[in-house]
Write a structure and sequence with these properties.
The chain has 129 residues and is of the alpha+beta class. The protein has helices at residues 14-22, 27-30, 106-127, and strands spanning 3-10, 40-42, 45-50, 53-59, 70-73, 79-82, 84-89, 92-100. The chain contains three helices and eight strands; from the N terminus they run E-H-H-E-E-E-E-E-E-E-H.
Length: 129
C-alpha cells in the first residue's frame, strides 16, 4: 500500500496549531475535505457533512504529544485511520498528515492528496493570523 506524507510548516507554536486543529468547531474553517458544515458532537464522536456525505469522525484523546490521529467512518461503513501530527519546527510547527492509498485509483489518490494539501494550507493561514 502506498502512503503519502503531506507536510506544512506553520509560523505558530505547536500548541497553538494543535489546539486550533483539534477543536471541532474549527474543522469547517480549514478541513473542507472532511467537514463542510457545522460539526454535530455526540460524546467523543463528531458527525460531519463531508464532500462524500455524512461521516463520523473520532479523534484520539487530547494529548501533550501533538497527535491528531483520527478515524473517519465513511457512508459505506468503512473506517479509515488518518495519522496526523503537530511537531516542533525551527520556524514554529510542522503539521504532518499521512494519506493512506487504500483502494483508490491514481486519480482519486492524487485528488485526495491535493485536498489534504489545500486543507493544510488553510490551517497554516488561519493559525498564523
Amino acid at each position: 500500500m502506498e502512503d503519502r506524507e503531506i507536510r506544512r510548516v506553520v509560523a505558530a507554536t505547536p500548541d497553538a496549531v494543535y489546539e486550533f486543529a483539534r477543536d471541532p468547531s474549527n474543522l469547517p474553517l480549514w478541513a473542507s475535505g472532511l467537514a463542510q458544515a457545522e460539526v454535530d458532537r455526540r460524546g467523543d464522536d463528531l458527525i460531519v457533512e463531508s464532500p462524500i456525505g455524512r461521516v463520523l469522525v473520532r479523534f484520539v484523546p487530547h494529548n501533550a504529544s501533538g497527535v491528531l490521529d483520527h478515524e473517519v467512518t465513511l457512508p459505506s461503513g468503512e473506517t479509515v485511520t488518518n495519522p496526523m501530527r503537530v511537531v516542533a519546527h525551527p520556524e514554529g510547527a510542522e503539521v504532518i498528515f499521512t494519506l493512506r492509498r487504500r483502494d483508490l485509483s491514481d486519480e482519486e489518490f492524487a485528488r485526495d492528496a491535493d485536498a489534504v494539501s489545500e486543507d493544510l494550507d488553510r490551517l497554516a493561514h488561519l493559525v498564523t493570523l
